[in-house]
C-alpha cells in the first residue's frame, strides 16, 4: 500500500509561491509569480475595470484568484497575442457584454406568453374603471 507524500500539493504550491491556489496574494507575491513589475499591476488596475483587488488599511492590495487569472490573461494577450492595451480592453469588454439584437433577447414563445399576460392585465384594469 503506497502512502502519498505528506505534501502532495508541493508542485502547485511551489508554482504559486507556497500558497494554496485559492489564497489571496499581495501585489509583491503576484509580481514575483508573474514576473510583472508592481507598477505595471497598479497601472493595469487603472486601465481594466475588471481588475479590482481588495484594498485593506494602508491601501494594501489583495488579489483574489480570479484577479490572478485575469492578470495572467491580460499579460498573455499583451505579450504573446500582440494586443495593445486598448485591444485588450475592447476584448474584455466584448466578453463581459454579450450583444444580442433586441429581437433575439427573448425567444418568441416567452415573448408571446408575456404579451398574453400583459393583455390580460390591461383588460382587467379596464374592467375596474
UniProtKB/TrEMBL annotation:
Q: Where is the signal peptide?
A: none
What Pfam families does this protein map onto? Answer: MerR_1
* Domain annotation HTH merR-type: ranges: 26-94
| SUPFAM superfamilies noted in UniProt | Putative DNA-binding domain (SSF46955)
Q: Where is this region: Disordered?
A: 1-21
From what superkingdom does this record's organism come? Bacteria
Task: Specify the protein name.
Answer: MerR family transcriptional regulator
